[in-house]
Amino acid sequence: MRGIIHYRLTLIVAICVGWPSLRAQDQHLIFGEVQMLSPKVNSKGDELMPVLSPDGNRLYITRGAFEKNVGGRFGGQDVWVSDKNEKGEWQEAEPVALFNNRGNNAVVGIDSGGKRIYLLNSYEDNIGSKSGLSYSDQSEEGWSPPVVTKIEGIYNLGEMNSLYGLNVNELSDVLLISMNGPYSMGLEDLYVSFKFTGWNRFHQASGAGVQNEGFYWWSPPIHLGNVVNSVGYEISPFLSADGKTLFFASSRKGGFGSADIYYSTRLDDSWTNWSAPVNLGREINSRAFDAYFYIGQDSSVFFSSSRGGKFGDIYATQLMSSDEDILEKREEIFTPSKTNIPSLVEEFEIPTVTSVHGLETLNRIERNILFDHNSDNLLLKDLDLLENTIAILKANERLNLHLIGHTDEIGSPRQNEILAAKRAKAVNDYLVKSGIDQSRIVTESRGESKPIADNQQAVGREQNRRVELVFGTVKEGEQFE
């Protein structure tokens, strides 16, 4: 089955959920009865990559080798969607026209609020001639046309490159990649990349030629190491909610079929040190091709398998019980230690502030934590700035910190005031968790009222979605000598 192009596209979304941890046959995971979904979801073509919306009522699938696709039966794959009715039954799947062209199309991630969908394909033309990662945002008018983002090191992928796959987690800060890269042991291996917003200290927007809201760069991919990866192929990664457990399909020796589903646990923050992969057993795997494992918020499990015939179908089961909570919802951002990301803490000497002039000098450095559209999630890109701020506060006990939340002008003023307050609180909570006393932090929400850039331009709105960090003195009215 692997000879068919679609089986080599690695796309599955990791939704942050609170479902119980896992037990497979002989490996601490127990599943319910496995059942094929109805013909309303499955067809005579290939059904792959099930992705559930956060509310559990919409199932996205990728369908290939189907005459009703944009490119026909012998063209690329298309995104289809099935909605659940009041009885909990999946309805007839329909194509998502906005997301489909003649290339290979698939949903590769949905953010936690269900307002942003990540997509395979660059959408730079109507025939899908260039591979890439794009996203679409939902508004009152519907889904926006897909916008391409940049992945350092693999952005220029050539014409319709199908030998790679992408997986964006629900906080949109970790990207898993399946590709035959420079460190691959055999065929496709698994890599990880971390997200940076287009307007930050690590990259300059000049020369990018992109003026789209939310334009991102992803760091150069890091090989996950030789424990997870093998001389065969590793595809279809699914990252657990806590960021520590990885599910994937592999053709390594010892499986039941042409590809089996495995899981492995991350042992430290390096993203290169993993436990030995564990086969999910005969409850999930078959003598055929099994991949694209996905778990929903209600512990429902979906995956694709060719056990029923020539092509893949979507199967479902239920995660029943587990010994330990290895997939508990994570509360902190990832802190990889070997990503070669420059550190403000390491690169700049921590100042000792003893005068008004010193305080003014400190505040001349712009300290803005940027946010995704309609989100209050802290992302990896801001870790160094926050750690530098913490170091300054710990070295200067007379200082406090004023956190001022802002938004762009999209949405109502009241909604934006609330969102700005949530953003300030997210930064506040991170600082308190890191040992800064709450009494030294003041938060404020200014909503959309204080933009620093043009809200009519996407790049301006991106800069306006921020929390300002302003240093002051601990006691009101206190002055330095």
Automatic annotation (TrEMBL):
Residues 358-475 form the OmpA-like domain. InterPro entries: Bact_OuterMem_StrucFunc, OMP_bac, OmpA-like, OmpA-like_sf, WD40. Keywords: Cell outer membrane, Membrane. It is found in: Cell outer membrane. Its main location: membrane. Coiled coil: none annotated. Transmembrane segments: none annotated. PANTHER family: LIPOPROTEIN YIAD-RELATED, STATOR ELEMENT OF FLAGELLAR MOTOR COMPLEX. This is OmpA family protein. It comes from Marinoscillum luteum.
